[in-house]
Structure formats: C-alpha cells, structure tokens
Amino acid sequence: MTGDLTTSEIEFVKSAERGEPYVGDVRKPLRAEVVATILEDLAKNSSVRRLTLRATKVTGVLDLSGREIWSGIELHSCDIDTIRLRNSRIPWLTLRNVKVGNTVDLANVTMSGNLMLTDHCRVVGSSPNGAVNLQGSRVEGDIFISAIRIANSLGPALNLYQSVVSGTVEVDTDIKLVGSSIYGCVIFAGARIGGDLRLTGIRADNPLGHSIRTDSARVENDVILRRVDVQTDYRGTAVEMGGLTAGGNLSVIDSRIWSASAPALSATECRVGRGCYILNSDFKSRAAHGGVRLSGMQAKGLSISETRFQNDEGTALDAEGLEMDDHVLIRASTARSGGSRNALNLAYSRIRGGLDFEGTKARNSSPEGYSVDLREVTAGRVLLPDSLACRSGESDPATWLADGAIDLDHFTYSSFARNSSGVDQWLRWLRSSPEYAAHPYRQLAAVHGDSGHEATARRVLIEQQDALVERRVQGEGGARISKKALRITLGYGYQTWRAFTALLIVVLSSVLLALAAGAMLLPSGRNVASHTAKTSHQGTACSVVERIGLGIDRSVPILNTGTRERCDVDPTSSMGQVFTVAFWLLQLAAWALTTLVIVSYTGLVRRL
Questions:
Q1: Tell me, what's the pLDDT at 46?
Q2: In this predicted structure, what is the pLDDT of residue 535?
C-alpha cells in the first residue's frame, strides 16, 4: 500500500491481512477506495477469505463492479454511502445494522454463498433501479432480510427482477419498505427461487404503483405472505402475482392489503403445486374487474377462512375459471361488492372436490346483480348456507340480510353436505334470479332424486314449470291457461295422482248416480234404471251389484263389465234423459282424465 494512508487505515490493512475483524471509530473513517484495494489484494496474495468491518464509517463509494472478490464481506454497525458490486463475483455478503446513504447495487452479481441484510439496516436511496438492487443476480445460497428499513425516492425499494436464487428468500420481521416506482416497491417478478419465498412482517408503501410483485416468478417450494401490510394509492395492484408458479403452497396469512384504485391482490393464471391458502386477512380495493383476482388459478385446492373482501366498484373476490384438483373451501368470510358486479365470482370453475361456503356471507346491494356467481361451475359435494347471498344491510356484516341472489345456471354438483341449505332456500335463490334458466331446477331435482328424495325432486320440477309460466308465457293467454290446467290436474306431469284421484271421483260419482237411478221411480212405476228387454224380466229393478256395474260401464273408458246389456237407464222418460246426459258428462270427464293419466305416466305431458 502507498504511504498516504491514515493511522486508522493502516490498522485496517493490518487487521485484514491477518484475517481479523477491524473495529473502527466513526470519528476516524476509512476511504472506500482503500477497502476496495485491500479486497483486491486479498484475492491475489492471501488465503484470507473474510473481511469484517465493525463500527466503521466508510466514505465514498465502495465500488467493486466487474471484479472477482475471493473474500466474503461482513459489515456490522457501519456507515457507508454506497455499495456497488455490479457484475461481480463474491462468496457472500452480510450487512448488520448498516446505514447506507444511497444504494446497495448488486445487479448481475454472482454470489456462491448467502446474502444477509439484518439487525436494523437502513438504506435510503435515489436510484430508478432500486435502493437494494439485485436485478439479474445469481445467488447460490439463501437471501435473508430482517429488521430493515429501505426507502427509495426514485424507484423500487427492493428489486430482485429476474434474479436466480438457489436457496430460500426470506424477508422476515419488522420490514419497512417505501418505493416510488410504477414498476413496484418490492419486485420479485420473473425471479427463479429454488427454495421458499417467505415475506413476513412487511410494511410496503408505493404512491406510484404496485407494492409487491411476484408475477411470472418461479418458486420451487412455498410462497408465503404473512403479516403483510401494504397499501397502494395510485393505479397499481397492491400485490401482483399474475403468472406465478409455486411448487408448494401459496399462502396469504394475517395480512392487510389495500389498494385505492386497483385490485388489492392479483394472482391470475398462477400454477400452484399444492394448495392456495388465504387466512384471516383483510382486502380492500376500488377496481372494476375484481378486488382480489384468482381467475385461472390451477392448484390442488383453495382454502379461504376468516377473511374480509371489499371492493367498492366491482367484484370483491374474482375466482373465475379455477382448476382445482380438490376442495374449494371459503369459510367464515365476508365479501362486499359495489356497483352491479357479483360479490363472489367462481364462474366456469372446475372443482374435482367439494365446494364449501360454511359461515360465509356475500353482499351485492344492487338489485341488478348476483351476490354469488356459480355459472358453469362443476363441483362434487356442495355446502351453501342460508345466509350466503345478501343484499340488504349496513356496513356491519352482522346486519346483512339473506335476500340476495345466486347465479346457478349450469352449476353442476353431485351431492349436498350435511349442513347445506334445504330445498326451500335453493328454490328461493332460483325464484330471486333476474333471469329464468331451466338447468338449475333440473340439476337440483336430479341430485335429490339420486339421493332417494323423489317427492322433493318432483316438487322442484313443478317449481320450474311455475317459473316458466311466470317468466316465459306472459301475454300468451292460451298457453298460459293450458299450463295452469296441467298444474292443477297433473302437477305438470310430476304428480299423476292428481288426475288419478279425479278419475276415481268421477267413477264414484257415476256409481252413485247409477245407484240413484236404480232407486228412483217413474210415474209409470218403473225405476229410471231397470232391466232391459234382453232379460226375461224387463222393467224390473236392478240389483245393487248391477247398478254398480252400470256406473262403472258408464264412466270407465274401455272397461266393459257387460252390465248395460241387462241393466240400463230408460232414455224414453224425461228423468231418464237427465240421467243419460249426466252419464255422458261423467264419461267425457273420465276419458279426459284417463288420457291425462296415460300421457303423464309416459312423460309426454312434460314435453308440452
């Protein structure tokens, strides 16, 4: 080294050459170029593989860009203006309780070990690339960031865009990040991480755009956001995860995520190897196309519990087009939407397991919209509680009334869970739907029928026909009257017993009429119904059995007991003519009712 070193710098050089930590004095700073020179010399002439500075002030820019550094660097309780290692190779880097006056620039660095920023480090930068910039870097160990403050007035706070990390990235506990960039405050977009991505205890603010970005990143194990508190005031999604691939679980737990004019969380088109979990969190947004967006996600399953979704301009939870290998559980949660958008949207989802909304409420205050959209959803066992769909009420979910609508068009499911709503509630949802659709009724009837509840299935199908009459045949008088007649006589073909009972009443009436005719005397002394000329005792009274047979022959179509050949009404008298006309009317009614019974049993009436 040259002879212009200060006393403190000479002591530093000696400590470095011996491989010992240098404990400095903030009143006696080291020049950054001296530290850089020592690191280069150690790489060339020494077996020392560690440089440690403690309680030291370093002036200037520690610039090791484009160099191969053989010694790992540890700074503890130091004060430094800028650390620049762009395009460098270094074993590892540790910063503990370090104050960085500008930036930590590690863009395109190659690090064979770990990167650690812990113990109340502070970085206050003004760089468009990031106050802590690891863009394009390659770290073969882990990255651990804890108890740190990072602020950037011109760009992201933490930037790992398209970085590659072989191990785990953990940003954990007491993290305050402030950025000023339309691209995001914390950026993991396009990164490749071989272990977990754990973001715990983060507070991130960005007045210009996204707060946290992991879009298009690939993480081999779990992605975990726990106790995350982020808020975005401009047109940027608070947490943007679109296109993320996670080999393990994707979890958002105990978090508060708000966006003033965009989605709070967007995880569209994510590919998750195991389950997606959203637990005990709070989402608030103003976004026309979904406050929390999970549309197109593929995962083993989805579990949401004790979480609040609020979107003042659109759908609160948009999970359209999910592809789930197992259950979707949305329990003990609330969703509130603004405008005419659905509060919960799962339309076009494919769920190979069950769909469970136990304890969940979804509110859409608009009379034009649905509270829950289940169009074209395919699922196994379903649980829809009575209180799921709400419209009226105040801001407190406890005041919400279960008077909302659910879009059930082409919602296909196999069975009901034990605590699911009964058929009365399902029929209320169908009746409250703004538009008529046949499939929801037929699906509901089919599931009840498969469960052995045939009466309930028929009731549902009758309700379907009632709805068809009310919504489709308005103004068509003839069709409306015919449908009403089928409703009364046959229950639209699902209650044949109605027509059969009426037929029995007609037959009984005919028998009673025949008994009366056989008992009534004419002025000539003969009975109205008496033996015919084909008998040897013409004009004499018929027996009770003969009169019963006469009533049956006069009413039941096709059936002929042969009684009329021996006993019949005499039509030559005026009273006999009255009885004859009465028998004709009963026979006409019997023919009509018999026809209805036949077409009902064959199912023809259901096609009318």
A1: 63
A2: 81
